[in-house]
Amino acid sequence: MLTLDKIYHASYILKDVIRRTDLIIAPHINPKANVFLKPENLQLTGSFKVRGSYYKISQLSAEEKAKGVIACSAGNHAQGVALAATKNGIRSIICLPDCAPISKIEATKSYGAEICLVEGVYDDAYQRALKMRDEHGYTFIHPFDDIDVIAGQGTIGLELLDQMKDLDAVIVPIGGGGLISGVAFAIKSLNPKIKVYGVQSSGAPSMANSIHNNKIERLGSVSTIADGIAVKEPGVNTFELCSKYVDDIVTVTDDEVAAAILSMIEHKKLIAEGAGAVSVAAAMFNKVPIEGKNVVCLVSGGNIDVNILDRVIKRGLLTSGRTYMLTLELIDKPGELLNISRIIAENGGNVIAVHHERTNASMAINGCFLRINMETRNFEQIETIKKALLEAGYRICDHM
Length: 400
Prior knowledge:
- The chain is an alpha/beta fold.
- It has helices at residues 4-14, 49-58, 62-67, 76-87, 102-110, 122-136, 147-163, 178-190, 206-212, 236-245, 254-268, 274-284, 306-319, 336-346, 379-391; strands at residues 24-25, 34-39, 69-72, 92-97, 114-118, 139-140, 169-173, 195-201, 248-252, 294-299, 323-331, 350-357, 367-375, 395-396.
- The termini are far apart.
């Protein structure tokens, strides 16, 4: 059973191992609330996962330690297990899905683990790890559905209560549910008035579906940039704990996650991965009732692949109204591009790319389409620019 004593014991074991991450005020996330970030992306190994994996490994018997440990993970749990095992002089084998970001695979190797890449997603890696456990006698370190692992993650809840005496709500990312189970149990056990909200990607809502339908449900597939929480089925322990201690679970889209990642980069100089940013996305896009409240968003990890980061930033710029593609239908004559550029500039926009197209069978012989990619401040400015162009007699074809 999960108990407060176990979470306090985990806190004691971890006090010289993990970083006690500070709270960072973030008014830009949602001006209607007092939002703070708990940057576990700055934790050792780049995520909260080291808390649970280290505590679990610390509780193994000498015989279990001698045989070694095995784990499966999309990346962050892998690094936590690798670091914890190496620090304790234990052999570790990590099964990862072959779609895991290269940066996470290489980081896991750097902490001393042996890597076994498995074709498919997390659940496929999980089955391979169980098979190897049975064949070789390794101790399996579950990424979320283990009471010791959950207790380790629950130390974050103790820290939050100590760091903010007037805390109203906590927003927590959910994959399999280990993080929110520990945090919610710790917080609700000590102050049941504090709200605990969970967030999943709309492309992987396994816990959300399960809680809302009052039974564990398995997804046929998952698809999200938040690879760290792309879990098809929640755990038995985590489902029970979430059912009892979590107030609500919501979902966010990949576009909303991208906007949250961009916002943290710009305003707080923090790099978060998709799984770590879903909590911030929920606050940004008013997915949970936090107006006028003191709220902490857990930024659970920062191990994002740099190859993905560029695409995420571009998507975040679009979602936030920072870039916009404008399509105009006009008569092809000298001076039109100059006049359009002048109108955009007068209203504060910056043209960064232009595409001129004449070869469309549906347009007039002397007509053309002009596609303009521009940098803008927000959606309000976009509407101002569009209004000015319409008043100048131009036809906007945003549907193209």
